[in-house]
Write a structure and sequence with these properties.
Layout lengths: L5 H20 L4 H25 L3 H8 L1 H21 L1 H6 L1 E2 L2 E2 H21 L4 E7 L3 E6 L3 H25 L3 H30 L10 H54 L5 H8 L9 E14 L1 H7 L2 H21 L3 E6 L2 E6 L7 H28 L7 E17 L4 E6 L1 H12 L5 E4 H7 L5 E7 L8 E6 L5 H4 L1
Parallel strand pairs: 8-10
Antiparallel strand pairs: 1-2, 3-4, 5-7, 5-8, 6-7, 8-9, 10-12, 11-12
Helix pairs in contact: 1-2, 1-9, 2-3, 2-4, 2-9, 4-6, 4-7, 6-7, 7-8, 8-9, 9-10, 12-13
């Protein structure tokens, strides 16, 4: 075997493996497809060059003589397209070189390539018949157009390197800048080495064509590394960007959730927290609707508060009222009640909606709440007395259990969650009839709590809007005081 055939044969094998590795790595990427075609073209050029050196006779040598140049010249097209693609095609084509648009230079180069291929195929003006040299074997002969061909190669080299250089200088993207620098170094090294080994030394009488194959190997290895590095950096950048995006989105969601929580807290100061929670979890929708439910209904007010508000300054009245309502609202929520509204010093609370623990448990919770409210009122009364308020504040509580319509009432633009109906009116009438400091129950509520809440019957009351007397019970608070705390 001719040892001078070994470098191009090795180059053929390496370039073929590189081309397959590139295309299998990502066949859908334009850069990969162009680099695959370039590596394949150079592989075929080197392979046919090796076969020329291995030729055993003139016939074989003539057959393989022009194939290296045919594949090499055809690869110029792919080379230029790859350089344009990797350097930012659209922007580069708009630029000029010697006052001529790069796009026009491109077509001039294409015309030169096709002319060179035609001359190569149909004449011996570029590549003459092969000659045998010892010890390298068969070598190309050169025709009279080989010198212009070298000039054309120089023109192609300058245009290619200029496009690559401008591509490097124009991009702020570090990933693109790196791949363009690597590609520039690959083509510059290949072109300089190719002219020295493939042109100048042979013209000086040194037959070193076989060493020319080192140039394509260097170029394709470096470009493959550059392309793989670009894709790896892109993936890394995407990963970092994704992590950063996820972190930003997570923080944004955390901030949004914090704002929602703060909004929920603020809204809960205007509407009942149970209702606000249902709205924020999507269980309630802003539509006018209601349903029939068995509820325990509670009303209370401060006896004599109207006379107090007419006597004292509005600022003192507001301060005491806010403190009172705040303490009472806390107790209502502690026992699971829902407050549809405050009306002056009057508190309206319901048990059993929107959530229920069962009729009996709802009634018991309401009773325990009422007892604790009475105890808290005694504490507030002592505090206010020490602050100079002499009015003997006491609250009245009325409780009734029955069916009511509960849901959203109002208009499309404004609504509130409440319960209405005849049984709601009865709870209000019990509160109006109640003695200060006491808790009155209807018979329906008493039947649910009688085994745990000590009560006594106080007879019947005549309630406005009802055509029959209402059996009423009074809670014996002193006997359950220890349970209500």
């Amino acid at each position: 075997m001719n040892p001078y055939a070994l470098p191009p044969i090795v180059a053929f094998a390496l370039l073929l493996v590189l081309s397959l590795a590139v295309i299998f790595q990502n066949a859908r990427d334009v850069n990969n497809r162009l680099l695959f075609a370039l590596c394949l073209g150079m592989a075929l050029s080197n392979g046919s060059s090796g076969m020329l050196h291995l030729s055993s006779g003139e016939t074989q040598a003539i057959f393989w003589n022009k194939w290296p140049y045919f594949f090499g010249v055809a690869s110029f097209i792919v080379e230029l397209e790859y350089i344009l693609q990797i350097s930012g095609r659209q922007n580069r084509l708009k630029e000029t070189f010697i006052r001529v648009p790069i796009g026009l230079h491109r077509w001039v180069i294409y015309a030169g390539i096709f002319f060179t291929l035609a001359v190569l195929i149909f004449t011996d003006l570029l590549i003459a018949p092969p000659e045998y040299f010892s010890p390298t074997g068969w070598e190309h002969g050169y025709g009279p157009l080989f010198i212009p061909y070298i000039g054309f190669n120089l023109y192609l080299m300058v245009c290619s390197l200029l496009v690559l250089y401008r591509g490097v200088a124009s991009t702020p993207d570090p990933i693109k800048k790196r791949i363009r620098k690597i590609t520039f170094a690959a083509f510059l090294g290949f072109d300089v080495y190719g002219f020295i080994v493939g042109v100048f030394l042979p013209f000086a009488g040194l037959q070193v064509h076989s060493l020319y194959s080192i140039g394509p190997i260097y170029m394709c290895l470096l470009m493959t590394y550059g392309l793989m590095r670009m894709q790896w950096d892109t993936i890394k950048d995407l990963k970092n960007g994704l992590e950063e995006t996820v972190a930003l989105r997570t923080q944004a969601l955390k901030n949004a959730n914090q704002r929602l929580q703060e909004a929920q807290v603020q809204i809960s100061k205007y509407i009942d927290p149970h209702v606000a929670e249902k709205i924020f979890t999507g269980e309630f929708t802003a539509e006018l609707s209601h349903q029939r439910k068995k509820l325990t209904l509670f009303f209370s007010d401060i006896h004599g508060f109207t006379r107090f508000s007419d006597t004292f300054d509005p600022e003192d009245v507001a301060r005491l009222l806010n403190e009172y309502l705040g303490e009472m609202a806390h107790i209502v929520r502690k026992w699971g009640g829902t407050i549809p509204q405050f009306t002056g010093d009057s508190i309206y609370a319901i048990f059993g909606a929107p959530d229920t623990k069962g009729e009996r448990e709802d009634a018991l919770s309401c009773l325990h709440m009422a007892v604790e409210m009475q105890q808290k009122m005694k504490t507030l009364q002592e505090k206010w007395w020490n602050l100079g308020i002499q009015s003997p504040f006491k609250i009245r509580c009325g409780i009734h259990t029955g069916m009511a319509n509960v849901g959203n009432y109002g208009s499309d633009g404004f609504m509130e969650y409440s319960a209405i109906g005849l049984n709601t009116n009865l709870a209000s009438r019990l509160e109006e009839a109640c003695d200060p400091g006491e808790i009155y129950l209807s018979h329906a509520t008493w039947a649910l709590v009688k085994n745990e809440i000590p009560c006594e019957a106080i007879g019947t009351i005549e309630a406005k809007g009802f055509h029959h007397p209402i059996q009423t019970y009074r809670v014996l608070q002193n006997e359950i005081e220890y349970n209500a705390i």
